[in-house]
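To assess whether the prediction recovers the assembly geometry, we first specified each molecular entity separately, as shown.
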Amino acid sequence: GESVGLHLPTLSVQEGDNSIINCAYSNSASDYFIWYKQESGKGPQFIIDIRSNMDKRQGQRVTVLLNKTVKHLSLQIAATQPGDSAVYFCAENLANTGANSKLTFGKGITLSVRP
Amino acid sequence: GAGVSQSPSNKVTEKGKDVELRCDPISGHTALYWYRQSLGQGLEFLIYFQGNSAPDKSGLPSDRFSAERTGGSVSTLTIQRTQQEDSAVYLCASSLGRRQPQHFGDGTRLSIL
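The predicted structure of the complete assembly is given in tokenized form:
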């Protein structure tokens, strides 16, 4: 069936390095994607989103890249800091069918930042 | 308030009891969503509200689960005759509409003894 998934369950990076978190999606009808960060005991926190008519979008220290050809989404975090340690989720939304507004989430990847 | 507010933050109850979870969305957000997150897992969609109507209830796992929204604002998720497999974190999110970021509350951690 259609699904959103992450390539690796954990990622360990050195403080100050750049982090890249990857996500594969299989539903070609998805037209909106979001990255969330979730810290222990908290709800998911919105990081950045991208629509399918874009290939790249930048925020503060974060960049999301969308490759529709291979159905791949990535989140790049520049100069990773200890506060970036968390679980990261990608999520997809199917194209507008009126009633269909739910997000489908991947299982999450843990980012651990080494001091 | 500035964000999505959920209550209670924690709920422990005995198997067979009914529970009611509350969500207060961001003011002005017409869309409201309920998700469930089991330990170490991703989020599972339960139900979506647009205004007071629920055009997508496809994620509700059984007829023991129901939800309502009144005044286009506060929503309650009710679980009747709770079972141990209902133990999870129940998350609520709201957004301005489709293809807009969904903003989450910190959830209700439900534990069924």
